[in-house]
Amino acid sequence: MSPVHVLHDAPLAPLTTFRLGGPATRLATATTDDEVIAVVREADQTGTPLLIIGGGSNLVIGDKGFEGTALRIATSGYALDGGTLELAAGENWSEAVARTVEAGLAGIECLAGIPGSAGATPIQNVGAYGQEVSATISEVVAYDRRTRETVVIPNAECAFSYRHSRFKADPGRYVVLRVRFELEDAGGMSAPLRYAETARSLGVRVGDRVPAADARRTVLALRAGKGMVLDAEDHDTWSAGSFFTNPILTEEAYGAFLGRVRERLGEDAAPPAYPAGEGLTKTSAAWLIDQAGFTKGYGAGPARISTKHTLALTNRGEATTEDLLALAREVVEGVRDAFGVTLVNEPVTVGVSL
C-alpha cells in the first residue's frame, strides 16, 4: 500500500459546500479502501479524534477547526452488473445517478443533483422528490471500528427511517466503504413518480412513469431553481442544502401545533401535513420558517437565508461558522415562538452546536 497523502494544519473550509470552518491538525486523503481502514485504525490505536469527510455537503465545521485527524475519503469505483450497482464511498453521487439513467435504470433518478459522495447516502438515508436511497440500497460495506473488521450490512439491518439510519444513530462506529443498490430495468422509464411537484412539472399524474432522463432533467431544473445544485458563482448554493429536517409530530403535538397555526394565521389556515406512520404527521420546515417571518433572502449579515429557498442557510462569501449558527439559532427560536415546534438541523456539526 502506498503512503496515504497527509497535510498538517490543513484548511477544511474548501472541502465543504459551506466553505466554512477552521483547519484540521492533520488531513489524510485516502484513495483506496485499504488506505481508509489504515487511517481509521491508526487514529483508533492512538486515541486520536477522527473526522470523516466525503463530499462535505452536510458538514458545519467550527471556526476553530478540528483538533485531530480529518480523513477525506476519495475512493473511486462504479460497477454495474445488470441492475446491481456498487459505488465506492468516494464516488460523486450526482455523477453516479446520471450514469444509471444513461444505462436505462430506474430507482435513483429523482435523487439527481444532490451534492456529496455515495458513502454519505445511507448514513442520512438521502431523499428528495419522492425517492429515498433506502428503497434501492441492498447492502452497505463498512469498516466496524468496534470489532475492527469489514462488515456487510443488508438493508434490513440498516434501520432506515426519515433522514436516519443505524450509521447516523451510532456515528463513531462505522465507516462506509461501499454501497450496493438494486435498480429496476424499466426499459428506460422512471420509477413511478411519487412527488406532486415533479409530476406536475412533467405534465403527468403521481404514480405515472416517464422516461428516466426526463425525470432526472426535471429534478435538476427544480433543484437549480431553489439553489440546490452546486454553482461556485451562485452564493445561494454555498450551503448544505436543506438546513433543517421536516418535523414529525405526534397526534398531541400536531394538535397543539394546529392550534398555534390557527391562532396566528386564522381559523382556515391549513399547514402542510403528510402521514408519517401510525399517529405521526410530518409538516414542512420551509413553510414554518416562512410563516414565522424568515422569508427568502432574510438576514443582514454575511450569512443569510437563500434568495431561492427558505430551507437553505447560505454563506454570502465572507461568513464565519458563528455567523451561520447565529442565523440558525434565530430561525429555530423564531419558529418555536411562533408555532411551538423546534426545528432540528440536518447537517452534522463539528466542534459546535445549535
TrEMBL record:
Pathway terms, separated by semicolons: Cell wall biogenesis; peptidoglycan biosynthesis
Keywords noted in UniProt: Cell cycle, Cell division, Cell shape, Cell wall biogenesis/degradation, Cytoplasm, FAD, Flavoprotein, NADP, Oxidoreductase, Peptidoglycan synthesis
Matching Pfam families: FAD_binding_4, MurB_C
GO terms of molecular function: FAD binding; UDP-N-acetylmuramate dehydrogenase activity
Family: Belongs to the MurB family.
Summary of the function given for this chain in its UniProt record: Cell wall formation.
Name of the protein: UDP-N-acetylenolpyruvoylglucosamine reductase
Lineage of the organism: Bacteria, Bacillati, Actinomycetota, Actinomycetes, Kitasatosporales
